[in-house]
């Protein structure tokens, strides 16, 4: 085993690498969303980051992360506001 893996105590296979990559990309998408000025691209980026975090949670079996992100996924997409608009009409 290479010295870096012994020192950090981790052995990354492709599953872990893909999960960590998805988590990093999802985190970067959250940072990008702070600078968006229009709502449609903001929602698209937010949904993509939520899917990345859900993938991260499922692949690493981080169930609290999955549950928390999945709970807020519909509010990110704007589904509740659409539902309220339909009920008001």
Give a quick set of tags describing it.
single chain; 89 residues; mainly alpha
Instruction: List the uncertain runs.
Output: none
Give the number of domains: 1
The sequence of SSEs as H and E is HHHHH
- Shape call: flat
Give the distance, in angstroms, between the N- and C-terminal Cα atoms.
65 Å
The percentage helix is: over 70%
Structural class: mainly alpha
Average of the residue pLDDT scores: 78
Rg from alpha-carbon coordinates: 17 Å
Please provide the count of β strands: 0
Number of helices: 5
Overall description:
The longest helix is centred in the middle third of the chain and has 21 residues. It is built from five helices and no strands. α2 packs antiparallel against α3 and α3 runs antiparallel to α4. The model has no long low-confidence stretch (mean pLDDT 78). It is mostly helical and 89 residues long. It has one domain. The radius of gyration is 17 Å and the shape is flat.
Short description:
The protein has 89 residues and is mainly alpha-helical. The protein contains 5 helices and no strands.
Question: What layout of secondary structure does this protein have?
Answer:
Elements (H helix, E strand, L loop, with lengths): L2 H6 L5 H20 L5 H21 L3 H15 L1 H10 L1
Helix pairs in contact: 2-3, 3-4
